[in-house]
Design the sequence.
């Protein structure tokens, strides 16, 4: 049986915040190593962000449904969650459908705010980590490099990147529409992740006099 690319994930469209938090991967390196040891896959890469968790793997010697079920079972176990709950919130792709999906993600066409640049950087970080981890090999290498090439072409040949966009940027712009001038206001940010940092940057640019961080 030939090697086959599989992709399993959940995102802001398929799962609520509680589910995404439940099945987020806090230790991607150990997850990838464990996946290789306990599932019938020869390569893998895991991407875990606030809006999505996706696992790309290369299966061999077993049918695609068997490999996918093994990945779901392992993923749920690592997160101390129910495989049934995970199954209710994921999408699964194989072969060309998996390739198309990862191209779409890299190009930010699947993002909550279309055109935001953060996802491509996050995907590149995940790829570099998988290479260092020894879990990204020939097929994942080719797939990710092609994904980066496709993303670059889309951003170059279309207007998708014509303005600075992100969830944080959109949130601050909405605040401006509601409150008008933000200079005399104070802002509270809940959380201290990348999105909070970007929000703080946009708020400061709009003259907010004080930002309070609540973890």
Sequence:
């Amino acid at each position: 049986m030939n090697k086959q690319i599989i992709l399993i994930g959940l995102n802001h469209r398929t799962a609520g915040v509680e589910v995404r938090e439940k099945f987020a991967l806090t230790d991607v390196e150990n997850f990838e190593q464990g996946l290789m040891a306990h599932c019938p896959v020869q390569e893998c890469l895991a991407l875990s962000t606030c809006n999505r968790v996706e696992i790309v793997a290369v299966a061999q010697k077993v049918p695609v449904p068997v490999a996918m079920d093994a990945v779901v079972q392992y993923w749920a176990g690592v997160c101390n969650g129910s495989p049934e709950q995970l199954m209710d919130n994921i999408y699964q792709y194989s072969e060309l459908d998996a390739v198309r999906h990862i191209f779409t993600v890299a190009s930010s066409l699947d993002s909550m705010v279309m055109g935001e640049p953060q996802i491509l950087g996050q995907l590149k970080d995940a790829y570099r980590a998988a290479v260092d981890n020894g879990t990204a090999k020939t097929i994942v290498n080719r797939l990710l490099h092609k994904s980066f090439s496709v993303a670059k072409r889309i951003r170059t040949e279309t207007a998708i990147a014509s303005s600075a966009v992100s969830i944080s940027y959109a949130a601050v712009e909405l605040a401006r529409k509601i409150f008008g001038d933000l200079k005399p206001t104070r802002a509270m940010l809940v959380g201290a992740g990348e999105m909070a940092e970007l929000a703080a940057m946009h708020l400061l640019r709009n003259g907010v006099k004080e930002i309070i961080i609540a973890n």
Remarks:
- The longest strand covers residues 4-11.
